[in-house]
Amino acid sequence: MKITWLGHAGFRIEIGGQILLVDPWLTGNPSFPEDRRAEATVGATHILITHGHGDHTGDALTLSKELSVPIVGIYDLMSHWEASEGVATIGFNKGGTVDLGGVAVTMVNAVHSSSLGTDHGPMYAGGEAGYMIAAEGHTIYVSGDTDIMADMAWMGELHQPDIGILCAGGHFTMDMSRAAWAAKKFFAFHTVIPCHYKTFPLLEQSAEALAAALPGVNVIEPEVLHPIEI
Predict the structure, then answer these.
(1) Which domains does the chain have, with CATH numbers?
(2) Per-residue exposure over 139-156, b if at least 16 CB sit within 10 Å of its own CB, e if not
């Protein structure tokens, strides 16, 4: 398995023979070198979207059309895109599981908001979500944008993820200390990878607080386009 950070909340996850692009915002992302776009997206089989905000959906439609791969996400947004943009989608909802060629992806709750920007203001884009991605004997919890929530208790007990990709930049989501508290309280991660940080001065710039609060957990500060092998 390889997990590669694409800056901000974007990831390339190579797992179970599939290549998943999660929340690919590449164009205009100050953390991502746009001249390496092809490297980041080559061979992708699916695009996963956690919610509608532009820093998560930025390149989803363009990549879906370029690569001829489906976008996977909440039914409301997928239905809208399929009708308005003509892209292939796999729409489902919280509690549902889809099989992406041997990779089981379950949509779970998140606590945030979800909208698309329009000329007339924000447009509802379905609920915000996270994912449990299971294959190769591992389960990855992709938190999406969220704060701590009581649902994490049953999510940790039921799905038992060993890898956590956690938003931790603060202001719009959990910060490092809140993400660490949630990880200790509700999960038994072997590996934690923070995201949704460093992109702008408003967000946290270091994961030192997260690592310090999780002794015994492999907290990896990702580097853009440097694969993490698990």
Answers:
(1) 2-221 (3.60.15.10)
(2) bbbbbbbbbebebbeebb
